[in-house]
Amino acid sequence: MTHILSAVAWPYANGPRHIGHVAGFGVPSDVFSRHMRMAGHDVLMVSGTDEHGTPILVQADKEGVSPQALADRYNRVIVEDLHQLGLSYDLFTRTTTRNHYAVVQEMFRTVHKNGYMVEQTTMGAISPSTGRTLPDRYIEGTCPICGYDGARGDQCDNCGNQLDAIDLINPKSRINGETPKFVESDHFFLDLPAFVDALGDWLRTRTEWRPNVLKFSLNLLDDVRPRAMTRDIDWGIPVPLDGWEQNSSKRLYVWFDAVIGYLSASIEWARRTGDPEAWRAYWNDPDARSYYFMGKDNITFHSQIWPAELLAYDGRGSKGGTPGAYGNLQLPTEVVSSEFLNVEGQKFSSSRGVVIYVRDMLARYQPDAFRYYVAAAGPENQDVDFTWADFQRRTNDELVAGWGNLVNRTANLVHKNFGEIPAPTERQPVDEGLLATTTTAFGRVGELIATHRQRAAVAEAMKTVGEVNKYVSDTEPWKLKTDPDRLATVLHTVTQAVSDLNTILSPFLPHSAQQVHEAFGGTGTIAPQPRIEEVTDLDDDSRHYPVITGDYRRGEGGTLPAWEPRPVVPGTPVGKPSPVFTKLDDSIVEEELERLRESA
């Protein structure tokens, strides 16, 4: 058993999330976490809503509410959506907890003490019309390096280079289009050049990463400069130093505090379990493994900024230093970055109405139908275009006609002929061959999931579904009524094969896995679901918020099955089955396209 940290990107709480977001961080992390738990590992899956920074401030101003009120509203919306999708977080929390503030400030103080926070005077942007600070992410212009028109004031998404807003060609405010005015401002910068050697040495050992992620990360080392870790803004975590903490217009950069959320959520989880030091098994142990799931636009922060913060806290940069109270914090084992999911040939854009919100998708379609689509056709290693026609086709041709049909006709044959799972007599080579196929599939599919090749994993699982369907067609159990012993053996064999496949598919399809389990007389829970709990802030009794959590344990006291075949039990009653998956009518394609047209 290995301790595995499944660190999932923090959705930003300035609005509901769309399906492109959860295709990048949500479904892949959950499939991986569910499988690794079944394989016997001790998994801690954490995340939460990211609630600081300028976009929330801007949106709150537009709506005439406080930033905290806005964050509270969308925190709950996002919690409900991710819970309904079945994402099995051990803790999904938020960045406005007092625990998070304390962890972030401890990280900053230690990094500063070790000499890696450097104070510099910079040229900050303000809005000429309002006099308010204009953060760099809200300034756009032409990249001075690659010429990309649409680079932001902190980095260019086209070439990946770090930028300063003042260096942009023709900078404009994204809020009102005006040209910003630049004035002097003091800030703390993370001394990234002090970690070039350490980051390079570490990255060159990451040979198992997706090639595009590793190449991009290594290329970032070609132009490393100190990066600002404070901002001129009044919404965020105070800078924990004398002379700064009392300054209401200076706050820690949202991206400094957001990535620390993985650690603070782990600490909050441990505190809530009654073992406040339990998080250390995932963070201090060199043998523990950590996997960070996100979209490709966040690679920089997870393969450069966050590792540099960890190295700085541990004192492992060129200036040396000593760790703080949290001890030596381990670097990521892998940054698992997905590409982008587009929709009907366009990039997702909430502002332009080119969007499918998670809530709307789950209100109209089964969560496992969407999870299956992401696993089978998602943006694992290249941008992918979601189309409603493809969603309908995959649901009908693969889930309904493939897996759903196998489950339904097997349960129906068992119900009609025996009313219970029959006991086998002597198996023939064709029967043994089928069970060997499903048993072997555990190893093949499990290895693919563990190495983040989920599209190949679900393809392998569905290939096995096809082989089991072929077995049923070849053995023709409906013609064996005059040979009850052979009929019993065939139906026991195919029931065992369906049980095996249900276990294999359960990380992808946890909702329907439970239905399949119960269709064959199974009791108890085999695909544990998350739950929402209303909790009180650990360090502020006046604050309350929802979290996602759950019990996903294997073994004594747990319900999760092992990643291996479980013998079906002859004599288990099997009733008349109901379809597991809903076939989608052709009309839904045009209906959904019309919704997109109306919202644009």
What can you tell me about this protein's structure?
- This protein is α/β, with parallel strands linked by helices and about 600 residues long.
- The chain has 18 helices and 17 strands.
- The chain is elongated, with a radius of gyration of 26 Å.
Provide a short characterization of the protein structure:
By secondary structure, the chain is of the alpha/beta class.
Give me some keywords for this one:
600 residues; alpha/beta; 3-stranded antiparallel beta sheet; elongated
Secondary structure category = alpha/beta
Work out the helix count.
Answer: 18
Strand content: 15-25%
Query: Main sheet: which strands, in order across?
Result: 3-2-1-12-13
Low-confidence stretches: none
Described by strand count, sense and barrel closure, the largest sheet is: 5 strands, parallel
Give the strand tally.
Answer: 17
Compute the separation of the termini in Å. Answer: 50 Å
- Average pLDDT for all residues: 95
**Shape, please?**
elongated
Rg over C-alpha atoms, rounded to the nearest angstrom: 26 Å
What is the helix fraction of residues, given as a range? 40-55%
Reconstruct the topology from this structure:
Elements: E1 3-8, H1 19-24, H2 26-38, E2 42-49, H3 54-63, H4 67-85, E3 91-94, H5 98-113, E4 117-126, E5 139-142, E6 149-152, E7 169-173, E8 181-190, H6 196-203, H7 211-219, E9 227-228, E10 230-232, E11 250-252, H8 254-273, H9 280-283, E12 289-295, H10 299-314, E13 334-338, E14 341-343, H11 358-364, H12 367-377, E15 384-386, H13 388-417, H14 429-450, H15 454-475, H16 484-505, H17 510-519, E16 531-537, E17 540-549, H18 587-599
Helix pairs in contact: 3-4, 5-8, 5-10, 8-10, 12-13, 12-15, 13-15, 13-16, 14-15, 14-16, 15-16, 16-17
